Amino acid sequence: MTAADGRRKVAGVRRPLRNDWSGQSFPHHEGRRRFIGDLRAVDPRSPILSVLGWGAALGPIFESQIFRQKFVFVASAELTAELCDESRFCKALPPAIVALRHYAGDGLFTAYNDEPNWQLAHELLAPAFTKPAMRSYHPTMLGTAGELFDYWDRRGGPVDVSRDMTKLTMETLSRTAFSHDFGSFRTAQTHPFVGAMIRALQTSRRKGALLTAPGGRLVGRFLDRRNASAQAYVDGVLDELIAERAGTDDRSDLLGIMLGVAHPETGQRLSPENIRRQILTFLVAGHETTSGALSFTLYYLSRNPECLARARREADEILGTDPAAMPTFEQVAKFRYIRRALDEALRIWPTVPAFARGPRADTTLGGRYRMRPQDWAVIMLGLVHRDPAVWDNPEVYDPDRFLPANVRKRPAHSYKPFGTGARACIGRQFALHEAVLVLAALLHRYDLTADPDYDLSVDERLTMVPRGFELALTRRHHSEVTPASRVGG
Ligand code: MNH
User: Fold this and answer.
1) What are the pLDDT digits (tens) for 281-306?
2) Angle of helix 95-104 relative to helix 216-245, nearest 10 degrees?
3) For domain 3-480, which architecture applies?
4) Pick the catalytic residue: 67, 109, 335, 418?
């Protein structure tokens, strides 16, 4: 806080409201206070879950105010579809994402729309994330999944699903991104790099929450200083790795691609510093999101025996009688039911719970609400994906909602777990390929039993993951995968 801020406060002049929507107000949680606003309605450890909890009763568009920061939330599929119109709206960076810029800078996820490195990185990297490009990552994904299975077979006993799925997706990503093996399945300890990375991220997240509070910037700078060594360690490891590889022309991983490719027209390349930020971005954007998706799918399958049986039957049909068989690249696209089971889990629990949109020019949202380019709205996917105007019995888990005929019946943009438009998820094919592959192989190899008394509890980290969900996994035998169990589908 500057001296000028201090004087203004003494004079009793309030700071302007950020994201003020020209002074319009929307329904909000009861009990708002002067000065702190709706602070008491929000659990600081799980702000998204708080908003999901009280939001359902507040209608298609609502707000909260925390000190001088206003948030406007959208809960209906109709307003979401409008905000997804790329000709009128684009990605906005709310404070929680701005705070991550300390960690990931102008990397793809945290870049502002007009930052030159976004366009450059997007064009250089898009080819590395197409469906055909997954063929080159497929052997790594298989190998990592195989190591996870071996680890389970050695350890025995029930498995903490979120923890082990996070180990898996972290390994897959570090191996495909920069050919590094963190040894997650050989030791019980977390690798120091992963620990430091998570500490650096947590600091950013805390800072994001703090930025809205008076004096928050000051505390933020304190946190940054305390965090500086973790960030410096993580940056140092990656910078060394990048320097070692520069000059070689190994294109077998994302780092190789980033070092090797130049823009076909301008010849421009990514700087080593920007490459480091992209790697940090992939590690963060790509591991917890996919691990949460896997964990929620396993949770819902374990709770819905009919769905589990159909998914298992599909895995058996395609993979054959050897329970240890792993899918080929071509087979992954054939697990249509398993893919629907994953889509449906991401409907009920989108692991990236929200994204923000703002208008390109002055406009009116929903025919009523004025928006200027500095205003933004948060699309709350957990509410949009349960909008009763679009989804029947939205709380019921039913993968067949994603049969092509049913998808065609729904309005556009009613299902958005990977965001939208130019700034949509670049890693979507990567996540889907890995998740379907792992689910198919797992269902084929093991019988799963969940504790019937477990109630789903959701942990809000940067993304959403089930907390304390355990599965007992028992190896299946050849004789159990009989041709008889392979009939039907
Ligand atoms: Mn991913 C952007 C969800 C897996 C890398 N991702 C987004 C956005 C959503 C999202 C939503 C848009 C955010 C916004 O508009 O502000 N991502 C997911 C989900 C999964 C996922 C639900 C898994 C399931 N993401 C991955 C993986 C990677 C990845 C895997 C990398 C390997 N995601 C990104 C990057 C962006 C992004 C990079 C930013 C893209 C851009 O803005 O250009």
Assistant:
1) 999 888 889 999 999 999 999 999 99
2) 40
3) Orthogonal Bundle (1.10)
4) 418
